[in-house]
Amino acid sequence: METNFFQQIADLNITGNLVLTVAKGADNNYLVSMILENEQCGDNAKHLIPRLNLRGTAQEIDGGFFDEISKPLQTASGLMVNMEAYLKQVEEAKKHSAMEKDKADKVKKEKEEKDKKFNEAMKKVDELEKEGKYREAWVKVPAPEQFPAQADEIRKRKTSLSSKFAPDLFGAPVTATKTTEPSEENNLFDERSNDQEDGSETE
Prior knowledge:
By secondary structure, the chain is mostly helical. Among the domains are: 5-91, no CATH class; 113-165. It has helices at residues 5-11, 58-130, 134-140, 151-165, 184-202, and strands at 17-24, 29-37, 52-57. The protein has a three-stranded antiparallel β-sheet, with helices on one face. The longest helix is centred in the middle third of the chain and has 73 residues, at 58-130. The radius of gyration is 52 Å and the shape is rod-shaped. The protein starts with a helix and ends with a helix.
């Protein structure tokens, strides 16, 4: 006898394994119990989905079997598929969250290391400046390209230090040099004066 039972099961398009149990009861009644199992679903809440039970004579069950089971089985199938998809999305979100945290930690660590190098370099500059070694201090000031975040501070520090050792070619007053030696002209004048004084005395 040809039957299309399994074709109708296939047409339900459910995901998982349909476990079907048929038990004969009293008065020629049958108990048909079924549950849909989906091993791919990792959510334990799937175990709360109840079994689907049909009770009646063979003729009654044959007459309304697929009408009774189609919607509940498709609902259970969709629910477990959604549960698994939800779990995967949660896992993916956790993974991305961990990646973002690692990325943020890496950026923070790099910034801390860079700030440490900058502070050490400027500490050395401070020490040299206190010792009056302005040119050496100027040389020790790091390049702005090395520390873009502190570029303005670096430029101001270099300008401040260079003003302490570089001559101001356009603003410095010229200081005249004094001499204690008499000029040649003054010597000649003194000699003539002495000759005149000697002549006046002889007359």
